[in-house]
User: Fold these one by one.
Assistant:
Number 1:
Amino acid sequence: MNKSKSKTELPDELILFLGKLADLRDPYISDHATHVRDLSVQLAIRVNFPSRKIKALSHAALLHDIGKLVLPEQIVNKPSRLTEAEYLMVQQHTVLGYKLISPLEMDAMIGGTILSHHENFDGSGYPYGLVGEAIPLEARIVRITDFYDALICQRPYREAFTAGSALDLLLKNRRCFDPALLEAFLHIQAEEHRLNREIRKRPMTTKISAQMLYEMP
């Protein structure tokens, strides 16, 4: 009698460790995985993403770049722009990441997000050139948050973008993103930066306001 296999539920701490392990391959993007997780969960809540799926989305965002673990270190940490051939190799990290976690039989959302988080809404992305809603919703969320956080991280060949400049680039590349998700993300960022400015104008007279300021990006 055949028994159906249940999904593997890895401990949260292990998922976080694996995400940070991928970040450690590139010293210029420290905490990128956790930033993408936090931004993705925030965006998902804003667009009424099913609450029962938030944990899997969180894990998917943490692991989105895990495929970079199997790329040559001299390419991941190259201190200059990649050649076309090197860039094509880096593009394989989505498929490699998917294959890496497949034996774990985790929630299908996690593998789908890892595989598709570089697909563009207009079909110009990789690895398969999926278009629009053929791209999993979770991957469309991470596409935006990963793009944004990568811009505000310093790279060996460029300085980090300011939050405002990164948002401008999101708009200039809007063809790559789900329009409704992009609009929601822009609203979130506008609200956060408005609150940031308001808090910084106030005298720091209480412990609560000091803590709020500390937590601002």
Number 2:
Amino acid sequence: MSKVRVWFEELRPPFLILSIVFTILGILVALKDGYFNPLYAILTLVGVAALHAAANVLNDYFDYRSGIDVETERTPFSGGSGILPSGRMTPKGVLVEGVLLLLGNRYTDSSSTLCQRVSRYES
């Protein structure tokens, strides 16, 4: 199995769908109310997905470190991704992935703030 696929699995994509759906709903409300900005919409969508994915990944890391992942029987809705107990990724690799996702979220947040400041000066 490729490293990219394992990294992607670690994100637990099926659980990201709800965050993305509600973010899109918020974007549609902004569009309806006349406050839509395509750049903010994209930054918000990417930021929410990155933050939720980071929470999933870091949850796996800390659950594995505490030993609970080894004791828990995995189900479709609990027990994490199972990637660390199976040895498909190292704890360090999972931690790095989680931190990179947090930094990705921080980047989208910073970009959004910068765009807001620039648009104020253009007005």
